[in-house]
Design a protein that fits this description.
The protein is an alpha/beta fold and about 400 residues long. It contains 16 helices and 13 strands. The protein is globular and about 65 Å long.
């Protein structure tokens, strides 16, 4: 009796066809530095030459040499995908031509300055979004980034340097990287490079040495960069060790940390602090906002609403679960925390004066009184001392 051949399952066949059509996602490697001039771009170009010598197809998607001769020389005969030229406010601006890189379909693309903001009118607002398109197209990307551009460290960098860094990259972008390699240089050596004109032209170098490039700033930023890369190594080791354990062993219960915010700018500081604590504890992060009663809501201005949206957007970018509640702030926050087994709560310090607190009460004090059994971290709102609102030094 002849046996009929088995007919393939249509759904399984369709899934296999789609899988064959879909390219394997590219890998992301980031060279991380504590400050401009440590040699990230130079190292990236050296790696490109090494890969090319091994037969890999490598192109330059976008590289910024900042007119540094040694960096420019390192490009050598590497293929460059011509950038887009965009006229913006009467000036020709060069941006990475993401579509041209994808059409070229190299195995590896070099992309400098991951935190770069694209010129208005571009498909994406940020260069790291263009990099995601390259990765989705199956292209491996080698990129560069300075520690001050990582979003969760934004407030710490401002405290250290007095400079408000405007261009940032969400932490999840860095966490997606298969490898983050620290390009390290001692602060003293970096300052000497600056003095010798190896980083900026003389006048720009003088201003940098008087402001951003101080030994104290560079030491603190270097410490942040070392901690960031050490954390990545620890997480990879932890994953490896878990892989060696008995699969039947019970899984540890994950902590849940919650941050309560309102429309004040201080909310961003609370969210960043909460993210850092949650990351260290490997805990889930929840950011909660409670819509006030009708009278208080009516008193909020358009600027307040805009700031609230900015706070909640930051929480979303950092990968937190964002929850909006309605009612009395302390009661709703504590009720949600208990219902969802929150182990730690991050709140802001009261901004009311002592007399106002005696008359009207304080949300902070209400939370502390009602949140029995929950660890509460009260983050002080630092005095609004004037900071230098200047652009971050170019990478």
């Amino acid at each position: 009796m002849t046996r009929e051949p088995e007919r393939p399952d249509p759904d399984a066949l369709l899934a296999r066809i789609k899988a064959e059509e879909q390219p394997i996602r590219g890998r992301l490697r980031i060279y991380l530095g504590a400050a401009p001039g440590v040699g990230k771009t130079f190292t990236m170009l050296q790696e490109a030459h090494r890969r090319e010598e091994r037969g890999s197809d490598v192109v330059i998607g976008f590289v910024e040499t900042h007119n540094r001769p040694h960096t420019a020389e390192q490009i050598g005969d590497l293929e460059i995908v011509p950038p887009r030229e965009v006229l913006y406010k009467g000036v020709i601006v060069h941006e990475m031509d993401t579509d041209a890189v994808i059409a070229r379909r190299p195995r590896v693309a070099l992309v400098d300055e991951l935190a770069h903001t694209n010129v208005p009118g571009s498909r994406h607002g940020k260069r790291y979004e263009d990099v995601r398109d390259l990765l989705d197209a199956g292209i491996t990307v080698i990129a560069t980034l300075n520690i001050q551009h990582i979003e969760s460290l934004n407030d710490i960098v401002k405290q250290i340097t007095g400079v408000a860094v405007r261009e940032t990259v969400p932490d999840w972008v860095v966490e997606e990287a298969e490898q983050v390699e620290l390009i390290d240089m001692a602060p003293e050596a970096l300052i000497q490079r600056m003095k010798h004109g190896n980083i900026y032209p003389p006048e720009q170098a003088r201003r940098a040495l008087d402001n951003f490039f101080t030994a104290g700033n560079l030491t603190a930023l270097r410490d942040l960069a070392l901690r960031a890369t050490a954390k990545g190594v620890e997480e990879k080791l932890s994953q490896y060790m878990r892989g060696q354990e008995d699969p039947s062993a019970p899984v540890a219960v994950t902590d849940r940390l919650m941050v309560a915010v309102d429309h004040r700018p201080h909310g961003k500081t609370l969210i960043r602090r909460g993210w850092r604590v949650a990351s260290a504890l490997k805990a889930d992060l929840v950011v909660v906002y409670v819509d006030p009663d009708r009278g208080a809501r009516a008193a909020q201005t358009v600027a307040d609403e805009r700031q609230l949206r900015a706070n909640l957007q930051l929480a979303d970018e950092l990968g937190a679960q964002v929850v909006r509640l309605r009612g009395k702030v302390a009661e709703e926050v504590v009720a949600y925390a208990r219902a969802h087994k929150v182990s730690q709560l991050v709140i802001g310090q009261s901004t009311r004066g002592r007399w106002a607190e005696m008359v009207h009460g304080s949300v902070t004090h209400d939370l502390l009184r009602k949140a029995l059994g929950i660890d509460v971290l009260v983050v002080a709102e630092r005095s609004q001392a004037p900071h230098r609102e200047k652009g971050d030094p170019s990478t």
